Amino acid sequence: MELAVVETEEQRQQRHDAYLKRVEEAERLEEKLNAITDNVPTKVCNEAGSTAGAGSGSFHQYREQKRRDQIRQAAMERELEEEQAQAAFARKRDALQAAEESKTAKRRAKRQKMKDKRKAKKG
User: Fold this and answer.
1) Max Cα separation, the chain?
2) How far apart are CA 84 and CA 75, in angstroms?
3) Helix (H) or strand (E) holding 50
4) Contacts of residue 58, Cβ cutoff 8 Å, sequence gap at least 6
5) Fewer Cβ atoms within 10 A, N terminus or C terminus of the chain?
6) What does the alpha-carbon distance between residue 28 and residue 22 come to, in Å, rounded to a whole number?
Protein backbone atom coordinates (compact mmCIF):
# COMPACT_ATOMS: atom_id res chain seq x y z
CA MET A 1 0.00 0.00 0.00
CA GLU A 2 1.50 3.33 -1.14
CA LEU A 3 1.13 6.51 0.74
CA ALA A 4 0.23 9.66 -1.18
CA VAL A 5 2.78 12.44 -0.94
CA VAL A 6 1.15 15.55 0.39
CA GLU A 7 2.75 18.81 -0.57
CA THR A 8 2.65 21.57 1.98
CA GLU A 9 1.65 25.10 1.02
CA GLU A 10 5.22 26.26 1.64
CA GLN A 11 6.66 23.62 -0.71
CA ARG A 12 4.10 24.48 -3.38
CA GLN A 13 4.95 28.18 -3.05
CA GLN A 14 8.68 27.46 -3.33
CA ARG A 15 8.11 25.36 -6.44
CA HIS A 16 5.93 28.11 -7.94
CA ASP A 17 8.53 30.79 -7.13
CA ALA A 18 11.25 28.70 -8.78
CA TYR A 19 9.06 28.32 -11.87
CA LEU A 20 8.43 32.09 -12.05
CA LYS A 21 12.15 32.73 -11.67
CA ARG A 22 12.88 30.39 -14.62
CA VAL A 23 10.23 32.12 -16.72
CA GLU A 24 11.65 35.57 -15.93
CA GLU A 25 15.15 34.34 -16.75
CA ALA A 26 13.93 32.97 -20.09
CA GLU A 27 12.21 36.27 -20.93
CA ARG A 28 15.32 38.23 -20.00
CA LEU A 29 17.49 36.00 -22.17
CA GLU A 30 15.01 36.33 -25.06
CA GLU A 31 15.15 40.14 -24.80
CA LYS A 32 18.94 40.01 -24.68
CA LEU A 33 19.05 37.77 -27.75
CA ASN A 34 16.70 40.10 -29.64
CA ALA A 35 18.85 43.11 -28.73
CA ILE A 36 21.97 41.31 -29.92
CA THR A 37 20.44 40.20 -33.21
CA ASP A 38 19.10 43.72 -33.85
CA ASN A 39 22.43 45.42 -33.14
CA VAL A 40 24.81 42.99 -34.83
CA PRO A 41 25.29 43.87 -38.49
CA THR A 42 24.58 41.22 -41.06
CA LYS A 43 27.62 39.56 -42.52
CA VAL A 44 28.42 40.41 -46.12
CA CYS A 45 30.32 37.53 -47.65
CA ASN A 46 33.07 38.28 -50.14
CA GLU A 47 32.22 41.94 -50.52
CA ALA A 48 35.61 42.76 -51.92
CA GLY A 49 37.64 39.58 -52.05
CA SER A 50 41.27 39.13 -52.88
CA THR A 51 40.37 37.88 -56.35
CA ALA A 52 40.33 41.42 -57.79
CA GLY A 53 44.00 41.58 -58.67
CA ALA A 54 44.95 37.93 -58.57
CA GLY A 55 45.50 36.92 -62.15
CA SER A 56 43.88 36.02 -65.43
CA GLY A 57 42.69 32.68 -64.08
CA SER A 58 40.73 34.39 -61.33
CA PHE A 59 39.07 36.93 -63.61
CA HIS A 60 35.80 35.01 -63.79
CA GLN A 61 35.64 34.79 -60.01
CA TYR A 62 36.29 38.52 -59.81
CA ARG A 63 33.58 39.26 -62.38
CA GLU A 64 31.04 37.12 -60.51
CA GLN A 65 32.01 38.79 -57.24
CA LYS A 66 31.61 42.23 -58.78
CA ARG A 67 28.19 41.30 -60.19
CA ARG A 68 26.99 40.05 -56.79
CA ASP A 69 28.20 43.24 -55.13
CA GLN A 70 26.47 45.40 -57.74
CA ILE A 71 23.21 43.50 -57.19
CA ARG A 72 23.56 43.97 -53.43
CA GLN A 73 24.19 47.70 -53.77
CA ALA A 74 21.27 48.11 -56.19
CA ALA A 75 18.97 46.35 -53.73
CA MET A 76 20.16 48.62 -50.92
CA GLU A 77 19.54 51.72 -53.06
CA ARG A 78 16.07 50.45 -54.04
CA GLU A 79 15.23 49.86 -50.39
CA LEU A 80 16.42 53.36 -49.46
CA GLU A 81 14.35 54.93 -52.25
CA GLU A 82 11.26 53.00 -51.12
CA GLU A 83 11.74 54.16 -47.53
CA GLN A 84 12.14 57.77 -48.66
CA ALA A 85 9.03 57.50 -50.85
CA GLN A 86 7.04 56.05 -47.95
CA ALA A 87 8.19 58.86 -45.66
CA ALA A 88 7.32 61.53 -48.25
CA PHE A 89 3.91 59.97 -48.78
CA ALA A 90 3.24 59.89 -45.04
CA ARG A 91 4.26 63.56 -44.67
CA LYS A 92 2.05 64.61 -47.60
CA ARG A 93 -0.89 62.55 -46.31
CA ASP A 94 -0.57 64.07 -42.84
CA ALA A 95 -0.40 67.60 -44.25
CA LEU A 96 -3.49 67.02 -46.42
CA GLN A 97 -5.34 65.44 -43.54
CA ALA A 98 -4.55 68.40 -41.28
CA ALA A 99 -5.68 70.88 -43.96
CA GLU A 100 -8.88 68.94 -44.53
CA GLU A 101 -9.56 68.82 -40.80
CA SER A 102 -9.11 72.57 -40.46
CA LYS A 103 -11.50 73.17 -43.38
CA THR A 104 -14.04 70.83 -41.83
CA ALA A 105 -13.77 72.59 -38.47
CA LYS A 106 -14.22 75.98 -40.12
CA ARG A 107 -17.30 74.81 -42.01
CA ARG A 108 -18.70 73.16 -38.88
CA ALA A 109 -18.31 76.43 -36.98
CA LYS A 110 -20.03 78.33 -39.80
CA ARG A 111 -22.96 75.87 -39.82
CA GLN A 112 -23.27 76.11 -36.05
CA LYS A 113 -23.22 79.92 -36.24
CA MET A 114 -26.01 79.90 -38.85
CA LYS A 115 -28.00 77.44 -36.75
CA ASP A 116 -27.63 79.65 -33.68
CA LYS A 117 -28.74 82.69 -35.69
CA ARG A 118 -31.87 80.86 -36.88
CA LYS A 119 -32.64 79.75 -33.32
CA ALA A 120 -32.20 83.28 -31.99
CA LYS A 121 -34.45 84.64 -34.76
CA LYS A 122 -37.21 82.12 -33.97
CA GLY A 123 -37.06 82.37 -30.20
Assistant:
1) 100
2) 14
3) none
4) 51
5) N
6) 10
